[in-house]
Amino acid sequence: MLNPPDPSLKPPQPGPETPQLEPAATAPPALAPEPDALAASEPAPPNRFAPSEPPPADPPEPERLGVWGTTQKAWDALWVFLIGGFGLLAGLAFVASIPVVQFAALGWLLEAEGRLSRGEGLGGVLPGLRKAVPWGAGLLGIGFLAIPFLVLSSYATDAKILDPSSATSLGLARATVIYGALAGLHGLIALAAGRGRLWNFVRPIHNLRTLWKARRDPDASLPRDFVTYATSLRPAHYLRLGFMGFVVGVAWLGPPSLLLASGKRFPLLGLLGALTLVLALRPALVAQARVAQEDRLKAGFEIWAIRANIRRAPFSTAIALTLTLALALPLYFFKIELLPRDALWLPAGLFLLALLPGRIAAGWAQSRAAREGVSHWILRLVGLAIALPSAGTYVFFVFFSQYFGWRGAAGLFAHHAYLLPVAFY
């Protein structure tokens, strides 16, 4: 049985020492925000961190050509190099044999030098290589057609010597004339129909059909296409550039050559001319490289800029000078005997082939001279030690060339390494 609670024990009453606990205040319920009436009418503030332009798309992956595609691309590049190079060399050799027009051949060499000095790769260093493919293919096709004609002509000549009145001699003579006429007509039709494609020389029916269809096409015009093609070759540019390079070369090498030519009568003047020519060969090469790079005549006479270019790339300039002069020396043997005017194009091709590496090396040296600063003095001394013996050997050989050259002392002025790339002007 439970005992009743003791009445003496009472719960404590709140007094002055005992604080009265108040109930905790309850937070009012959260109210949903009222919609802003101006939010719909005002534009959202721009996001400073959002890009102003969409991010660039990922570059497309290079197309995989495969074995067949790679082989075809390599074959196309080889075809352009071989056939285009053949046509380019033949065209430049023909141009170099024509007076006044031969300045374009020097301009072409300077253009190749200028392209490399401006930072272009070796793939585009030969101007007009791809455009010369039709010329090369056309010349090859005409050469193939000319082989039977030459064989028939040789047999006809031999038969005429043995028995001029025989049936064999007369038949071979008629066959030579008939084949020559037909081959010439077929060659012209193939050139007109194929625009220099080699396969058109073995497809006579296709060529006739092509010309017949082109007769009804108002947009097809052979004279207009030829004019457009000739204009794209920029003959005026090469003539102007070649003339500027010729003027710069004469200005740098003319006075020393004049003193050198007077060495027969005045030995001291000849010695002075030899020394000044040795010193002028390196800056003359750089001066022409600057003209080719900047396409300005005054660039070839800015002496302090030329000196600065040599100081920036002394070793490269010395290598270019040595290569240019070394390849130019054997060409003096073509000046021993005067060639007929119609045969001047034959050595002109060799001159162009021999002088092109030197021009490419000079353009490479000029591109290296575009950097800031000056090379170390040891490199400058090494470049000078290479350039002076090379120039001295060249001047020594040039001086004695007047005794076996066809032009005599006048040949001392014809520096084909710097001036026109021909044996005789």
Write up this protein.
This protein is mainly α and 425 residues long. Among the domains are: 132-232; 235-413, no CATH class. Helix content is 60%, strand content 0%. Helix 2 packs across helix 8 (267-294). The chain is globular and about 75 Å long.
Measured by DSSP, the beta-strand proportion falls in under 5%
Largest beta-sheet characterization? none
* Number of strand elements: 0
Percent helix = 55-70%
How far from one another are the termini? Answer: 150 Å
Poorly predicted runs of 5 or more residues? 14-27, 30-41, 47-52
Mean pLDDT: 83
Structural class: mainly alpha
Radius of gyration: 41 Å
Run of helices and strands: HHHHHHHHHHHH
Shape: globular
Number of continuous helical runs: 12
What's the quick description here?
Helix content is 60%, strand content 0%. The chain is an all-alpha fold and 425 residues long. α7 (235-261) packs antiparallel against α8 (267-294), α8 (267-294) crosses α11 (345-368) and α10 (314-328) runs parallel beside α12.
